[in-house]
What does this fold into?
Amino acid sequence: MVGTPNTSPVQLEELIKLASVKLTGAYGGVLRDDNRRVKILFSGPLGMLETIDAELEAIKVALELGSLADWKDDVRVLLESDSQTTFCYIPREMNCWADALAKACVDRTSMFKVCW
It folds into this structure.
């Protein structure tokens, strides 16, 4: 986590979904506050990347979007993923928002984002 002791953590739920038939992939993520309220939804298409590269791209996008938010100075950041190769393992069943965002973006050509 990054931040000061009196700030609230923002959780990143992120998932990389590789489409085996189309050989393309997408990522999706959700930034939430400490009360689990959604602050930012995002997803985007990926090219032919290794899974670890795709995970890092999704984390980079989440940090970039979070750095533009009005509340950026009031939070700590906690990164979580459903991949065992990153910071913290999260089962796919518990990561349904990010899963749905990634699946919806497999056929897109540009990034999707919504901020509150």
Q: What stands out?
A: The domain at 8-115 is CATH 3.30.420.10 (Nucleotidyltransferase; domain 5). Residues 1-23 have pLDDT under 50 and may be disordered. Residues 51-68 form the longest helix (18 residues).
